[in-house]
Amino acid sequence: MADPSPASSSSEDYALDGNALAGLLEEVFAAEITTALRVCQSCGTQSAIGAHRAYRGAGVVLRCPVCRDLAMRIAELRGHTRVWLAGEWSFETPDR
Amino acid sequence: MAPISRGFRGRPRREVDPARVPPGQYVVNDFPVLSAGPTPHTPTDQWSLQIGGAVAAPVSWTWEQFRALATETFTVDIHCVTKWSKLGTSWTGVSLDTLLAGVETDAGYFTAWCDGGYTTNLALADVTGGQGWVVYEFDGAPLEAEHGGPARLLVPHLYFWKSAKWLRGLTLTPEDQPGFWEAAGYNNHGDPWKEQRYWGD
Amino acid sequence: MGGLSGEPTLLAEQAAGEPSSASASASAPLVHVPSRWHSAGVREVRDETAHAKTIVLDDPAWPGHFAGQHVDVRLTAEDGYQAQRSYSIASAPEEPLALTVERIDDGEVSPYLTEELRAGDELELRGPVGGHFTWRTADGGPLLLLAGGSGLVPLMAMTRHRIARADATRIELLVSSRSLDDLLFAEELKRAGAQPGIDVKITLTRAQPPGWSGLARRVDRAMLAELGPPPSERPRVFLCGPTAFVESAADALVALGHAPSAIHAERFGPSGG
């Protein structure tokens, strides 16, 4: 989904799209979830997981592409990965 | 272990004293930018640093007041849980000893909170006695926003996720309260020399 | 989406013996086969430009892929140090698996892949992944594809797929490159642009050869307004390249009236990959 706020561009140089995490997420969910649609608890926008913004800190963070609200925290630990889903999650698979 | 990639060596690494490199770390020459969210850009005229929570009286400084405090320039090695270490980094800032000097508290811990919503938790014992600073310059120049400017916490003896960027305050707490990464699987203490990366380490 | 319920998929059946495209059936679900790290053999490494190479792989476990997907590549040094990056698949599903990698000057993985890796080596990878940034002919169009530098790679896979299927989907492909020497797949782009229903435009932002009559500036709103297809035709839009390129193009497209939900973006990050 396009980011409708051009002013944020300069602060977003280090963000990637959730789609870049597809391999990592597939290891966790044993499924390709980048096309699944999540409704943001904060702003109500529905966006594909692959369109969420991904940030790399100690672990990985996924945020709503419109309001940057926290959606997911991913910690790649020794030999396994732990995922924390923030807030209430709804998840809808697309028609194809 | 994963198969070796023939001929792959990674970036060229200078010879360094192995005693300066914690277990599992690799020394880098650049300064990777890691973040849990978009880079905030807080103008210094809208900035303040607050110490509050379990204290007799909260204190706060404007940017001018903060910059008027006694500062130090010093060089330390830093270690990121994502396995890179950067040796000999030079910073200028105010010691936590100075900032906490006027603060009366029985609390043993604090949560550092930041623009953008990041938090991390530390014991006072880990940041006092010359172990922690709030820094505003790196390598002699004002700290860039992507590296945490206007000011960040610096606690080099722990993994660098504890050196919270875009610091705005410390909330003292009687009990240790896991911050952003500590709640998500990362070690509550984070000593690189004991390789305390994750829960249970 | 069959993947989430874990049911066996069309693609898995095809992996058993059919080398042909996974999109044989117009109603096939977006399939997946959970991919673990595994080694593929390097069949060939060939030059594309002075800074880019195409790596053709032999992966007996390869389940097939969709145009636009990528693989994660992991390198391990003898001391255990590991570096991992993602690379878009350059090949259409109908072609032998290939990645095209551009060397980033102070990069860590791309210099290895473009200067050291050779036929006979093994490459550890995970994939194909990235269902959000895919296009199959069955999805229809028209397509508006915007590429910044090596962002052309997944969009080329989509274009190659369309041509391989002799499909009639209309494609507008705009490629932004620093110079003609940096332009990936230059000859192939010329041939693609000559196909009915495919229009290719190149803009060279830093240096143009003598006599260049094409576009010679950064992608901007006016260029996008002129390029089409217009929002009224509801094109599917795929943008790929450095973050700044993708963000400014996305903003311009939304300002022109394209629906945000029709725009799929793949940002490479500040360094461009």
Tell me what you see in this structure.
Chain A is mainly beta and 96 residues long. A five-stranded antiparallel β-sheet of chain A has the order 1-4-5-6-7, with no helix packed on it. Chain A has a three-stranded antiparallel β-sheet with strand order 3-2-8, with no helix packed on it. In chain A, a hairpin with a 3-residue loop joins strand 4 and strand 5. Chain A is globular, with a radius of gyration of 13 Å. Chain A starts with 15 loop residues before the first strand and ends with a strand. The N terminus of chain A is likely disordered. Chain B is mostly beta strands. Chain B is 7% helix and 30% strand. Chain B contains three helices and eleven strands; from the N terminus they run βββαββαββαββββ. In chain B, strand 4 and strand 5 form a beta hairpin. The two termini of chain B are 20 Å apart. Chain C is of the alpha/beta class and 273 residues long. A six-stranded antiparallel β-sheet of chain C has the order 4-3-6-1-2-5. Chain C has a five-stranded parallel β-sheet with strand order 9-8-7-10-11, with helices on both faces. The radius of gyration of chain C is 18 Å and the shape is globular. The chains are: A mainly beta (96), B mainly beta (201), C alpha/beta (273). Chains in contact: A-B, A-C, B-C. Chains A and B meet through strand 4 and strand 6 of A and loops of B.
Q: What is the subunit arrangement here?
A: heterotrimer
Number of DSSP E strands of chain C: 11
How many angstroms does the end-to-end distance of chain B come to?
20 Å
Radius of gyration of chain B: 17 Å
Strand order of the largest sheet of chain C: 4-3-6-1-2-5
How far do the termini of chain C sit from each other? 30 Å
> Beta-sheet strand percentage of chain B?
25-35%
What sort of overall outline of chain C do the alpha carbons produce when their principal axes are compared? globular
* Contiguous helical run count of chain C: 7
Q: Describe the sheet with the most strands of chain C.
A: 6 strands, antiparallel
Largest sheet data of chain B:
6 strands, mixed
Structural class of chain B: mainly beta
- Which shape of chain B, going by the Cα principal axes? globular
Poorly predicted tracts of residues of chain C: 1-29
* Helicity level of chain B: under 10%
